[in-house]
TrEMBL record:
The lineage of its organism: Bacteria, Pseudomonadati, Pseudomonadota, Gammaproteobacteria, Alteromonadales. InterPro entries: Beta-barrel_TonB_sf, Plug_dom, Plug_dom_sf. This is TonB-dependent receptor plug domain-containing protein. It is found in: Cell outer membrane. The keyword Signal applies.
Amino acid sequence: MKHQKQFKTNLITLSLLSLFSSFHSFAEQAQEIINDEAIEEVVATGTRLKGSASAVIDERKNQAFVADIMGAEQISRTGDSDAASALRRVTGLSLVNDKFIYVRGLGERYSSVRLNGAIVPSPDLTRNVIPLDIFPSSIIESLAVQKAYSPNMPAAFGGGDVNIRTKSIPSDTLFKVEIGASYKDTNDEGYTYNGGSDDWLGQDDGTRALPNSVKTALNTYINGLSDISYRNIRDVESKRTGADIGQAAAIDLNKSLAKALPRDFGLEKESLNPDAGIKAVYGDRFDNLFGLDGSFGFLASVAYENEWSNAEKFSAVLSSVDASESACSQDDFTCYSATEKEVSTKHNIKLNSSLNLGYKIQGHDLTATYMMLRDTEDEASVALYQEPSKSLSIDAGQLQRSHLTSFEERELEILQLRGTHNLEWGFLQGVGVDWQYTDSTATTSIPGELKVTVRDEYLDGKYKRTFYNGSLGGNPYLYRFVELEDDVENWGVNVNKVFYFDNAEVEIAGGGYFVEKTRDYRTDFFNYRFSQTQALELAQSEDEALSIGSFFANDSVIDSTDVELLFQEPTADDYLAAQMIDAYYGSFDITFAQDWRLSGGVRYEDFRQVALAFSRSAFNPALLADKLSADAIEQASVMEDDYFTSLSMTYSQEAYQIRFGYGSTVVRPDLRELSPVQFQDPLTGYRTLGNPFLESSALDNFDARIEFYMDNGDNYSVGAFYKDIDKPIEALLTESDGRFTLQFDNADTAYVYGIEAEWLTELHSDFLGGAFFTSGNLTLSDSEVEIAQEQRGDLTNLKRRMTGHSKYVANLQLNYDSHDGMHQASVIYNVFGDRILAAGVNNFDDAYEQPLNSLDMVYSYYPTFNTTLTFKVKNMLGQNFEVNQNDVLIRSQETPRELSLSFSYEF
């Protein structure tokens, strides 16, 4: 029976998906999940490090394809509070923007993230990959990073696949509480403003939100003109009433809309509180509950974190390709044509909760999981901009001042059902079945953002006043409101059977995997337009200047000012998108002659995607749907199907293993990248534009690795990899009128290759009352991307390293475990090589993010069996984020040193 699945979304998205059904029929519904066997409990007779590592080492050793595993105990000893921080300890992985993982030096588009084998959406406005800092370490059982492709994984595979495996029901009663606090050395003072009563929960209470009266006015007055000006209001009201209401009445109506907007965003400078957090986990297991066979269990957790971060930032534009680092200063313009200094204060609230319910009986295991992850960022910043060519400098007597207040709510809600079954029924005896169904929704809301851009006047190098006049133009008071909803539903099944022969063991597996995804992105801008003769005296001192965001808080100020509220609607700033994937695979895993293992298979994927950008002419979706033709939707669609193969050969001895692997995979453009919608990329600072003509990139992946396992638990591995990429998707930089724009496009070809080494070895088994161990990994690699001549545009280099690629990544740990089990310590060092942040244009070189050396220390004290006291020092070297172009600093940001103390008790 053919089955058509409908999305739970609006009328427009339903029309997009119904069009797909005319192009392609769906197959029977099923879904795939990786056979994630729970890591067995290990009772350590030696040190904690050896005990915790043995289980994950055994799992890695038994994997048919190259993979790295990090267990909960390993995450705990490094003191990492979330999945992102923990993953940077894995071989070949580096962390970007404290959120995104680069695998083997490849950008985040080449890394896929799954939760218990399921795809979940990203609440990040500018990235397809989910920000990994949203997953607290308290819910993580293990992190599995598979670097060689296998057919039971999604074909969208580049550098590697990260599978976050959450904790299941406990084996006995568990109740654990942890409290902690931390101090950052950059947080003595920062900027704050009056928010809402629910800010501490990471939610806006309506203080910043777009009022209903303004939404109604947009429906009434825009009428396809993208305008709520005096003139348009007067025209619409006159047609509606049959009489001219006059200019004065139109002005009053417009100003009533300005008064409805939130307007009290003045800043204050004050001392910031230390970070604080609390976590609690409670679970239990019951055997033969209510007389029923089997075991029932549950595990519930909640975590709350209140964090502050304050940082000074610097950004600049070089004036000449001959600029010299030795002659440059942030306070003069020997090298720079423009500079900006900013102080930004961010207040993050993380509120996470999860509930697992499980039932196990005679080879059957059922799990239901609900998870809510909230990460809200409230930002207040002050920036001063200089550009002498436009008479913006202290010497010229004026600077441009910008204040930003922005509240961004990000939330991920997940419902997941999973099951594993070992069948013992007749001819099905020995058949294993596992399945999963996951329904998840990611939402991002900016209920209110205000950017105020005005002028500071200086006299004899000293501040005099802050002002604005209508002749300056621009957007002095610019509001932004954003809503994003990303829904993903995926399901599937795996079936496997093992056959035994005299000298061989053969496992045959197969299954299906299905994904339905929809996205609805809306953004609205409003700004004040002042008459040419209007002048505003905003402040007479620098302290008073902090309050310019509240200048129009009083209605009387708006009434007495010649100001008009406008609705800023670009050509296309909203988009609707949908994606479907139907996948089926078959695989084999053969062990023969005791020492050899051959694994592989084929995967078929039918991929359909559409992304349609539009300019919102009204808030009524039905009106918009009438304007969408089938031809327009077809032109905005990507439809492709293909087969993807993999093969792995392993030779095993008790002390070592040798692996070889090959996989053909694909990297597809994201919904956001296919939509010709502009947005500001927070990582590069450039405005970024999607491209509806992007094509998917085909990859050939080759891997080889040798692993050594010593009797005492030490282990070592050395590996090599090579990836050939056809039509890689790169962000190409162009320049027009001094403004830079990143636009996604397909380059010609690219490749990346390298070697990896990893180790865990004991240094001294009896020193200072304990044992010392060292662990770590090192990756050395190189890459090259080639841009076709016809794509040159303003680019300086047609051949260069791939964006985001580092030539080296190193993680080193020195670990100590006391013999009495009361003390544990680790010193952890991480560094990555420089990587291209943005390609250079107009003969300027590429902009390189500089190596960042991170040194952390974690010490844990166990005074009783149930009690843990942990002390952490992060970023002991205090090195800042820096970007160089032509060997000259063009961007920097403070990175704080952090001291934290936590106490946990398990009842």
